[in-house]
Amino acid sequence: MQTAATYTFFANPHVKHLPGPFLRPSPHYGALVHLPSFRNKTSISIAMAASPSPPPLQELTITRPDDWHLHLREGDVLAAVLPHSAMHFGRAIVMPNLKPPVTTTARALEYREEILRALPPGSNFVPLMTLYLTDNTSPEEIKLAKKSGVVFAVKLYPAGATTNSQDGVTDIFGKCLPVLEEMARQEMPLLVHGEVTDQHVDTFDREKVFIEKILAPLVQRLPQLKIVMEHITTMDAVNFVESCKEGHVAATVTPQHLLLNRNALFQGGLQPHNYCLPVLKRETHRQAIVSAVTSGSKQYFLGTDSAPHDKRRKECSCGCAGIYSAPVALSLYAKVFEQAGALDKLEAFTSFNGPDFYGLPRNTSKIVLRKSAWKVPDTYSYSSGEIVPMFTGNTLEWLPSDQLEE
Ligand SMILES: NC(=O)N[C@@H](CC(=O)O)C(=O)O
Ligand SMILES: [Zn+2]
Ligand SMILES: [Zn+2]
């Protein structure tokens, strides 16, 4: 069925020679329209047939997503945050930046047990463990990690780059090449917090400089090593990822870097709950990342970087970096893809590209995203404090729920 639409054209009164009594046929109008009194008007309305636009989607069923970059912490924080991820995600790559960090397979196995014990009864959530790379990690440790069957990647934190990175790598080319070569042999991906730590480099340029100084030379040197550039924030990162081979270099993208630019740090006063590392960048970078992930490229996948910190450690004179997004992430990713008119590409980003890159099977169960408004809680309380989620107190759409008839 066709519906009538009204188009209004404005004639410019300063133009002396108006185009005459006819509008020319054009691909947009498709018809010759007779307008005898056009000369005497500054605006006209024409009723014409237009194709109906399809009704907006109210419900979306997708393969259960995985989170390829997640901080679960330990103890009471773990117990408080894990249910939010386990509710809708099938698996998650669990970051090793604990205090002290998870540097050995033996410790990764213990941490995995702690996570499994904290899961809500009946949950099928699978934690995929990682090791924290140091200057002293041995190639032997990589072999053990691979053999364990529960460690899926190794994380590079340049020393001093972010939360709990003080034990990270000080000189990747000088100290880590034998380990990285072993990882390439074992097909163990390297996950990268891609920022230089040089205090002379502007905070907003640290990702770009890291790509030039470390990442590009590393890819040249070890083209077989699988690398995930975590939480990308710039157009430079997009260009770099796309200059590399699909299946070898990929990137995770957070909800905050897709939805917020650096103004969100200062809107109406300092906003500590929008502070994370790498720090939010300017709007042109945000737009480049949105175009990249909604393009359908297989090189991008979901990684929330959900990073809970107690409210008192965020709202203080030296607040720490990290945004707690686990409870809101799926709603936010759906919002990004909807705004870009690319909801048809959402499932590949949330549920296919990650497992395909890691060489793991895709999930078989489904979840449903319903377009119904829901209010984000102001805080989540736990035994020793409170955690403030991203978009605290806001109303979001796209409420995720399990598909009942599986
Ligand atoms: N993203 C953050 O701002 N913080 C993360 C560390 C990290 O992923 O860099 C954390 O562990 O709190
Ligand atoms: Zn990081
Ligand atoms: Zn992180």
Automatic annotation (TrEMBL):
Stored InterPro entries: Amidohydro-rel, DHOdimr, Dihydroorotase_CS, Metal_Hydrolase
SUPFAM superfamilies the record matches: Metallo-dependent hydrolases
Domain Amidohydrolase-related positions: 67-378
GO molecular function, one term: metal ion binding
EC top class, as a word: hydrolase
One GO term of the biological process aspect: 'de novo' pyrimidine nucleobase biosynthetic process
GO cellular component: chloroplast
Reaction(s) the record says it catalyses: (S)-dihydroorotate + H2O = N-carbamoyl-L-aspartate + H(+)
The EC number(s) this enzyme carries: 3.5.2.3
Membrane-spanning intervals of the chain: none
Pathway assigned in UniProt: Pyrimidine metabolism; UMP biosynthesis via de novo pathway; (S)-dihydroorotate from bicarbonate: step 3/3
Keywords: Hydrolase, Metal-binding, Pyrimidine biosynthesis, Zinc
The keyword DNA damage is annotated on this UniProt entry: no
Coiled-coil regions listed in the entry: none
One Pfam family of this chain: Amidohydro_1
PANTHER family on file: DIHYDROOROTASE
Record-stated family: Belongs to the metallo-dependent hydrolases superfamily. DHOase family. Class II DHOase subfamily.
Database matches in HAMAP family: PyrC_classII
Protein name per UniProt: Dihydroorotase, mitochondrial
Organism: Oryza meridionalis
